[in-house]
Amino acid sequence: MKMAANLKLLSFLIPCAFLVPVLITMAPDLKEAWNSEALQNMKTVFIGIFLEAAPFLLMGVLLSSLMQWFVSEEMVRKLTPKNPIGGVLVAGLLGIIFTICECGMVPVVRRLMHKGMPAYIAVTFILSGPVVNPIVFTATLLAFPSHPEITIARMGLAFAVAASIGMLVYVFVRRNPLWMPKVAVTEVKTHPGFKMAQPHVHAHANAPDHNHVKNWRSFFIHAGDEFVDMSKYLVIGALITACIQTFISRSDLISLGNGPVASYVFMMGFAYVLSLCSTSDAFVASAFSHTFALGPLVSFLVLGPMLDFKSTLMLLSTFRTRFVIGLSLAIITLVFAGSWLINLLV
């Protein structure tokens, strides 16, 4: 089985051999291009984004592995509030206890959903956790020391958007949105209005919910598998984000944001492209405090931790594509409406 897989992979690598003479011929030009100032900046930005996100991703996979060890399905079901409103409110405030960046949130939530957590509670947690936590609260206060209303607006809007989307998921999503390849599933009722898909005992060995023997070796094997699985999407997202930041000047982007609606679109798009960690994006937003009003700044601070390029790839690796598209549209719509309303009122 393993030999057949290796031969299949080799068949895809054979065409790459024809590129070797071309690369040798172009070697001087490639070396010059690789040492250009733009590419040096791109490499610096890429390394910065990756190193900023990697520790939080590592924290997330270690926490996920601990949950695999110590948290049982029965424990998750007992601790999950039966009332959907109570469940959404509790999930929206879990970030105060679990101060995890958005990069490490995905593996944790995936593990909790495999343990039996309903989708609406998991989605609320994954959206509010990266914002509604003490570290982000303090960082935002330090970035805007003379404007505490920005910090209050950020926390309040993040909680409201996460809770609203959690209730939308409870009402409209009837099937488990997790993407589980090569796992035979059956649907069992876990909460009113939600069907939890659980794997049969003959699930594929590489499925994310298979059971390890509980020892330290299995703990680190599980954590390593999770880290490799999620980090490839982080690398791709960081690389594309670094290219955009390097080859598109910030002045050109700011020129697109002149207008009552365009300023929101620009700041939200800017947050998506930059893919900054929620613990540091407030200091970037403070650079625009004299250019944009309160509403666009809040839209930048709320949308970025909930939805950016690298987190989109991670979500697509965990949830079904249709669910991620609907979730993204809901986040964008509610963040835009909420930040516009805050700007109107404040």
Shape, per Cα inertia axes? globular
Structural class: mainly alpha
Beta fraction: under 5%
Largest sheet: 2 strands, antiparallel
Rg of Cα set = 22 Å
> What's the rounded overall pLDDT mean?
76
Straight-line N-to-C gap: 63 Å
Please, how many helices?
17
Helix content: 55-70%
Uncertain runs: 1-9, 181-212
Kindly report the spatial arrangement of strands forming the biggest sheet: 1-2
SSE pattern, N- to C-terminal:
HHHHHHHHHHEEHHHHHHH
Number of strands: 2
Summarize this entry quickly.
The chain is mostly helical and 346 residues long. Helix content is 70%, strand content 4%. It has 17 helices and 2 strands.
Structure write-up:
With 346 residues, the chain is mainly alpha-helical. 70% of the residues lie in helices and 4% in strands. The chain is built from 17 helices and two strands. It has a two-stranded antiparallel ribbon with strand order 1-2. A hairpin with a 2-residue loop joins strand 1 (185-191) and strand 2 (194-199). Helix 10 runs antiparallel to helix 17 (321-345) and helix 13 runs parallel beside helix 15. The chain is globular, with a radius of gyration of 22 Å. Residues 1-9 and 181-212 have low confidence and may be disordered.
Features:
4% strand; 2 strands; disordered N terminus; 346 residues; mainly alpha
Q: SSE layout and pairings?
A:
Blueprint: H1 2-13, H2 19-25, H3 27-34, H4 37-70, H5 73-79, H6 84-93, H7 102-115, H8 119-128, H9 134-143, H10 148-172, E1 185-191, E2 194-199, H11 216-247, H12 250-255, H13 262-274, H14 281-285, H15 294-306, H16 309-318, H17 321-345
Antiparallel strand pairs: 1-2
Helix pairs in contact: 4-7, 4-11, 6-8, 6-10, 7-8, 7-16, 8-10, 10-15, 10-17, 11-16, 13-15, 15-17
